[in-house]
Amino acid sequence: xxxxxxxxxxxxxxxxxxxxxxxxxxxxxxxxxxxxxxxxxxxxxxxxxxxxxxxxxxxxxxxxxxxxxxxxxxxxxxxxxxxxxxxxxxxxxxxxxxxxxxxxxxxxxxxxxx
Amino acid sequence: xxxxxxxxxxxxxxxxxxxxxxxxxxxxxxxxxxxxxxxxxxxxxxxxxxxxxxxxxxxxxxxxxxxxxxxxxxxxxxxxxxxxxxxxxxxxxxxxxxxxxxxxxxxxxxxxxx
Lengths: 114, 114
Hints:
The complex is a heterodimer. In chain A, 0% of the residues lie in helices and 51% in strands. Chain A is mainly β. In chain A, the strands form two sheets. In chain A, strands 2, 4, 5, 6, 9, 10 and 11 form a seven-stranded mixed β-sheet that branches. In chain A, strands 1-3-8-7 form a four-stranded antiparallel β-sheet, with no helix packed on it. By secondary structure, chain B is mainly beta.
């Protein structure tokens, strides 16, 4: 069955370190998204991609970057981790061109920055 | 810009009682509306969505929602709560011009009492 996976599921890091969170989907979806989930804020969009070599900034993109070298993967990099980036991160994907299609979410990565 | 407001960050209901979760949105164009559910330590999964047509939408697990354009609302209901409904629920909106990007509300956590 097609799926979307994230790794690691839990990560503890120190302030100033570079961290990369992996997202891999086997749906063959063109559109991929990264969100962070914080209490009271719901999910907020960090970055998104509509296809290979395409990346776009979302609502809360400062301090984060993504790259899309193939259809299946959209890794999220925290250039220099800050305590404010402690959060739960979700990756999602969907087919392109149809805004009514649901997004499929990964299980999330809980990141703690000390 | 789109925005979504969920009234009440926590809702407590008795098993067998009505579940009512409120969602109001702002959008400059007719929106597409979604309800997602998140069970503990899991990603989000789609409950139901409104795109066009019938304003009363039925979803999985006995949930339904009604789109009311005049009230800019998309409230979620279930006639009889079950213990398994304990979860966090998110309302989200997307616009055709925004591609597949979703804007989420802050979420409502539902507690079901026996």
